[in-house]
Write a structure and sequence with these properties.
3-stranded antiparallel β-sheet
């Protein structure tokens, strides 16, 4: 291998940097939310911690988490009582082959002055050896404990739907799962049809388990991403599954899936995603720092206004609670639902009333709001 080729191995790709930026934003909001709850012990698990930094100094997910924790405890806002950051990577460093990746991670984290409230635990076990004990521990979380598990494997064999289901069983864990859709999609059709395609074994197993022997929509990568999202909801039997697109290059995508049993946790993660992509709440372009109108033009965006109006017309009316829930279930925040309702009201397509039938002063789009509002079709 040439020196140029070797050097390339050591450098984080643009889509990896974008993914880590998304993860950072998730963590910032995640900690801010949990600091204002009754949870006393927070666990953040990164099961593929990486090199720590690449040759250009770009940070991996492990260092991003440590930096977010550092900023969290230095801020003037309310802090989490206790956070344990568990970092694991079994591989030898590519940059320093004589040591493990996790040793490099530890070295970089020790440069950050984290407070006593933060405990760092390092591991260097293979995923297959580690995951049973992780699942056991997570399924024994107590009421005052909460966990976020970040799974960013190389390849597909560690992205098993069964594993995600087992991790989520306790109800107090949320999962972020990174899937290289562009690579999986490339071999999906062949993996499904050709039993002799050895390289596609793990893809075939993933699709077979998740889709329960049905054929996913593989017309294009966007449809594939959305079909995986929809099927995860069915397979995991949880209501809250979201996905953030990361565009590697035109038409080539990675996906960061988020799984949660918590409505509030899901809402806050949606806020993090919309902070990344304020225009569409969909994704992040690896080669572009900010969103533009045309960035995800090839994504088949549902017209959220039409969805809301259709829901109101089909049911006759929605309560403010139902409107709030409908927004989350369709990956939109209350502020987006309010904007849609304002538009529908201006077009005289809906009326908004109190339970007594008088005009309502607002929509009160908050979870479990004390006031009940009826949003009716006209």
């Amino acid at each position: 291998m040439s020196k140029a080729a070797q050097k390339k191995v050591y450098r984080l790709a643009e889509h990896s940097i974008a993914k880590i930026e998304c993860y950072r934003k998730y963590l910032e909001i995640y900690l801010a939310v949990l600091a204002n709850t009754l949870y006393k012990s927070i666990y953040i698990l990164d099961l593929f911690a990486g090199e720590g930094k690449d040759i250009d100094g770009n940070i991996c997910s492990s260092i991003a988490a440590a930096q977010v924790l550092d900023e969290h405890y230095k801020s003037d806002n309310k802090k989490c009582t206790s956070v344990t950051l568990f970092l694991n990577d079994p591989e030898n460093s590519v940059i320093e082959p004589e040591i493990k990746k996790i040793k490099r991670v530890k070295r970089f984290i020790e440069e950050i002055s984290l407070p006593p409230a933060v405990k760092i635990v390092y591991g260097e076990k293979q995923f297959e050896e580690l995951i049973p004990s992780i699942i056991t521990r997570l399924n024994n979380l107590q009421n005052g404990e909460k966990a976020l598990c970040f799974i960013d494997p190389f390849g597909y064999k560690y992205s098993k739907p069964e594993t995600i289901k087992d991790i989520l069983l306790n109800g107090n864990t949320e999962v972020l799962l990174f899937i290289p859709i562009c690579f999986m999609h490339r071999f999906a059709a062949k993996a499904i049809k050709d039993n002799t395609f050895v390289e596609g074994k793990h893809i075939e197993e993933f699709i077979s388990v998740l889709f329960q022997e049905k054929i996913p929509n593989i017309k294009n990568q966007i449809e594939f991403i959305k079909s995986i999202q929809s099927q995860f909801k069915i397979y995991l039997k949880i209501q809250y599954v979201d996905v953030l697109y990361i565009e590697k290059e035109k038409g080539q995508y990675f996906a960061l899936y988020f799984f949660s049993n918590s409505k509030r946790g899901f809402q806050k993660m949606l806020e993090a995603k919309w902070a990344v992509d304020e225009l569409n709440g969909r994704g992040f372009a690896a080669k572009q720092a900010s969103m533009s109108n045309s960035l995800f033009a090839d994504i088949d965006h549902e017209d959220y206004s039409s969805l809301v109006l259709k829901e109101i017309n089909s049911k006759g009316f929605l309560t403010n609670q139902e409107a709030f829930d409908f927004g989350l279930n369709n990956n939109h925040l209350p502020k987006h639902t309010k904007k849609v309702l304002d538009g529908l009201k201006k077009l005289n397509l809906i009326i908004v009333q109190t339970e007594s039938g008088s005009p309502a002063a607002g929509y009160y789009l908050e979870d479990n709001h004390s006031k009940k509002i009826l949003i009716k079709k006209r």
